[in-house]
């Protein structure tokens, strides 16, 4: 698989590992930078959908509050 994988997808996979290892804002910002510059909008939508679908209702509410404020959830 690794010989056939798109180089941009390989970069995205590596940065996910780094971001999860760091577990901080720097790692998240680095991942966002790589995603923004290496992946197309469809690739990013696939990742976002998979991540949001993995959340419980309570976790999803927490994400909404974090990004949209207390009145969002």
Describe the overall structure.
By secondary structure, this protein is an all-alpha fold. It has two domains: 1-39, no CATH class; 40-73, no CATH class. Helices cover 77% and strands 0% of the residues. The protein is built from four helices and no strands. The protein has helices spanning 7-22, 25-38, 41-54, 57-68. α1 (7-22) runs antiparallel to α2 (25-38). The longest helix is centred in the N-terminal third of the chain and has 16 residues, at 7-22. The radius of gyration is 14 Å and the shape is elongated.
Question: What attributes does this structure have?
Answer:
73 residues; mainly alpha; 2 domains; 4 helices; 77% helix
């Amino acid at each position: 698989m690794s010989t056939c994988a798109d180089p941009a997808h390989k970069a995205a996979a590596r940065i996910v590992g780094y971001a999860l290892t760091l577990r901080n804002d720097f790692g998240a910002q680095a991942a966002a930078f790589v995603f923004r510059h290496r992946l197309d909008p469809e690739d990013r939508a696939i990742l976002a959908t998979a991540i949001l679908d993995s959340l419980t209702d309570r976790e999803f509410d927490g994400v909404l509050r974090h990004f949209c404020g207390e009145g969002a959830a």
